[in-house]
Design a protein that fits this description.
By secondary structure, the chain is mainly α. Helices cover 53% and strands 4% of the residues.
């Protein structure tokens, strides 16, 4: 279904017609009835898995068996990374200061899920843009590297600070996606970009989980905005596990002492000059 044109508030002010100002194609609730994408909620609860229902919500139509398996693969791939992931640290910091509920800490963790912490949104945008050029895979790979190295000095979806030869989650996701006919044009384009980057750098820089997820979800037809959200939500259960552990077993009000790396690099002790002091001394 094509995306409707963007609307702006000025057109409503000018026309005075606000009849479609709040419009959604996702769900409808009225007395005694709830429908999601047109389906009665009772049918979805009774007959669909969580993965199938989530796919329906995001894409608007029921997934085929292959799509269900691949989407489930994506959702379960973002397992925990100990305290290496900044999102987990952000969540635990908040939980240590606000142990009354897991929700603020969950929000903190989600807010720390971005391009630096491994969001699949940017890799998906890169791959969708590359395919839109209608070039060969090799030509698109070369141009994508030129564009993204110029744009941000790095190629999204490639490289990992710890896993230098292969990112284990990405390797497994890619292998299973290939086996289930889910590594299609976006996945192949990512392979070509990985190979071209290795040729240019003279060393292997592997596909990471964000790249693999971006390719898989783009091949499933998801919008890059949804892909970014799926990446954060996929890590959400790990965040919740960290939050509960922090509240039940952790240290209230976490700090970073000098012994754990805090380092002051400012000026030594000094005092305000007399003309800036209220007592004039």
């Amino acid at each position: 279904m094509p995306t409707p044109p963007r609307r702006h508030v000025g057109q409503y002010v000018a026309s005075g017609d606000w009849s479609d100002y709040w419009t959604t194609r996702i769900s409808r609730a009225e007395s005694g009835k709830i429908r999601v994408r047109g389906y009665p909620i009772e049918e979805l609860i009774e007959h669909l898995s969580y993965t199938e229902a989530a796919f329906l919500l995001l894409r608007g139509e029921l997934p085929e068996q292959r799509e269900t398996a691949l989407f489930d693969l994506a959702l379960r791939s973002g397992m925990d990374q100990q305290l290496i992931n900044s999102a987990a640290c952000a969540a635990r910091y908040t939980a240590s200061a606000f142990p009354d509920s897991p929700i603020p800490a969950l929000a903190s963790g989600i807010l720390a899920s971005g391009s630096v912490t491994g969001s699949p949104q940017e890799p998906a945008e890169m791959l969708i843009e590359a395919l839109g050029w209608k070039l060969t895979e090799q030509e698109a790979a070369e141009r994508a590297l030129d564009v993204w190295l110029e744009r941000r000095g790095a190629v999204p979806g490639l490289g990992h600070p710890m896993h230098k030869e292969a990112e284990p989650r990405a390797v497994t996701l890619r292998r299973l996606a290939v086996e289930q006919d889910g590594w299609r044009e976006h996945g192949r384009q990512l392979d070509a970009i990985e190979a071209e980057l290795e040729r240019r750098k003279g060393r292997h820089i592997p596909i990471n989980l964000a790249g693999a997820l971006g390719a898989l979800l783009a091949d499933l037809g998801f919008d890059p905005l949804a892909i970014g959200g799926i990446g954060a939500l996929g890590y959400g259960m790990a965040l919740l596990a960290h939050i509960v552990e922090e509240i039940r077993e952790g240290v209230p009000l976490r700090i970073i002492p000098d012994a754990l790396g805090a380092h002051y690099a400012g000026p030594e002790e000094r005092h305000l000059p007399a003309d800036r002091r209220r007592d004039g001394k």
